[in-house]
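#struct-pred

JT: dropping the chains for the assembly here, can someone run the whole complex?
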Amino acid sequence: MNAMRTPHIAVCLKVVPRPEEVKVNLETRTLDRANARQQFNPPDVNALEFALALREKHVGRVSVLSMGPPFFAEYLKLALAVGADTAYLLSDRAFGGADTLPTSYTLARGIAKLGDCDLVVCGEESSDGATAQVPPGIAEWLGMAQVTYGSDLEILPERWRLKARRELKGGHEVITVPLPAVVSVRVGANEPRFIDFARLTGEPLGVTVWSAADLGVDPAMVGLSGSATVVAGVDRAETVERRRELLTGTPEEKARTLVERIAVYLARGTRPDGAAASSPAAHA
Amino acid sequence: MIPPSYTKAEASGIWVFLEQESGRLEGVALELLGRGRQLANEAETLLSGVLLGSDVEAAAQVALAAGADRVIVAEHPALAVYTTDAYTKVVGEIVVERRPDIFLLGATPNGRDLAGRLAVRLRTGLTADCTGLELEAETGLLLGRVTGFGGGVVAIIKCPEHRPQMATVRPGIFAPPELTAKPWGLIERVPVRLSRHEIRTEVVERALHEGLDLTKAERIVAGGRGTHGDFGPLRELAALIGAEVGATRVAVDEGWIERERQIGQTGYVTRPKLAVVCGVSGAMHFTVGVEAAECVVAINSDEEAPIFEQADYVIVDDLFSVLPSLIKQVRALESG
Ligand SMILES: Cc1cc2nc3c(=O)[nH]c(=O)nc-3n(C[C@H](O)[C@H](O)[C@H](O)COP(=O)(O)OP(=O)(O)OC[C@H]3O[C@@H](n4cnc5c(N)ncnc54)[C@H](O)[C@@H]3O)c2cc1C
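RK: done, full complex below.
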């Protein structure tokens, strides 16, 4: 009987500023992202691709879901043009300024409202700060099993489980978990398909917008007021001043000069860790 | 506010999650004990380790030698291998019962898997992937430094009201502490209530590359797209000088080398004495992974390559003509 079951897959998508276009204003200690162009968080595109590939194999449907300001809707339309069946935007002023605790809560409430999700697919982490905690957070709010750093996703229809490869420190494992489950996938874990622009220009692609009231959430649990962490300040990352000594001559001459310069680092089993100050190449 | 599981007033002590694999502590667990010890001294509080596993007595002893005042040990056969459900349940119960003020975990795949879930179960804040930890002077609050946006920006994050103040920290940021021959701390065993039915994950297969840990490498020879897939000369140089081979994400994604060798924001943060970086453009995503190197050598055929900004020694040339000479010269040095 289970073999007939078709999965409803939800994909969490986030729109982020292109990292190279975000500037720090050191006077106000804030980030200037207003002028940065936006893009999908890179691993989220891989998440969507996994969902679409699973739908090809098992039928079912794919819903995309995002929490963010109204302009995210344009991006959700792109996800529809790539092939998602339905799109939902959780958008409300009350959601603004959320750290990962209320973010995972709000997304979990949105997924719960979708009704019958069997699998939630997320990107492993977002490139603009919040790192890797939202997917396990969603899983915990919903009481679902979780797989992080996943790739090679498979649904085992007879057992109604998700099978995935999962990265470990210095290796990997292959695990299965029962559905419903939340999985986060690595950036670059598959080859995302292209946008079907015919879908984009054809029938209007609808994005359903849900507010805090629609989700029935307590305003004190979402957005800034639901956050446990605060940003105490921002800084430009300190960079190490390097010598930047240009070595010249033929390749042989360059190699010879280099060996002279780095001889101290080539001797084996020498000083303890972190003794930078004692090195001749100490950074001025 | 999302109500926390316990209050500030009830919280005390600094805890470190002692991740282990086959009974051996992860490097980052030791690094966190080192930094945790300094913070505990500064705050005049106790440093505890939390160790889960099935036969971890030896690891507990190492943690004591690394400076823990106490190691809380939870042993059970079902804890031998990490699973989200078992670890979240056991760690969560110990935390709620004993109420630490600060709880630090390594930002390894398993450490982050656990931390993300646990933070929600405990209804607290988590500062993820820190590259620095301090205590705020006036309040004693934990300040986590977090790099974002490809490494150019650092945000300083704190968790004022919720407890524990959780943070995950990247491997390789802090130096491991010296181990003392005369540890003073105690091991405290806690009973484990866990049934196999509570663990939803089924582990089908596990493969670990024993011994490879870029974060501990003293020398690294790293390659990028400029190798065009030929890591041969890099491997030869690495073998000669006792280095590990590392790579950019491009090289990994191309399938030229294992993912375990990726350096950078989504790879490993290394702190070698010497990094020889060949055919790598120098994207911020990569350079955050070699920033802590004592000496960086860059070889790139493009004189405009940004990697040269981050290098002590700059060689503008084809890596395939420089590396063979370099290998010859180093050989001559070794035999001479
Ligand atoms: C969210 C996110 C996370 C990322 N995380 C990481 C990460 O952890 N690690 C990482 O490395 N990247 C990461 N990246 C990718 C990163 O932005 C760069 O794309 C990548 O580091 C570039 O790799 P590369 O230097 O090998 O390739 P390229 O940028 O293509 O550079 C190749 C270089 O080789 C030089 N070259 C070519 N031929 C030769 C030759 N014969 N001799 C000498 N030099 C030659 C060229 O001049 C060029 O400078 C991430 C990206 C994103 C979006």
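JT: nice. Helices of chain B lie at 27-43, 57-65, 84-98, 109-121, 232-241, 249-253, 284-287, 319-335. Residues 27-43 of chain B form the longest helix (17 residues).
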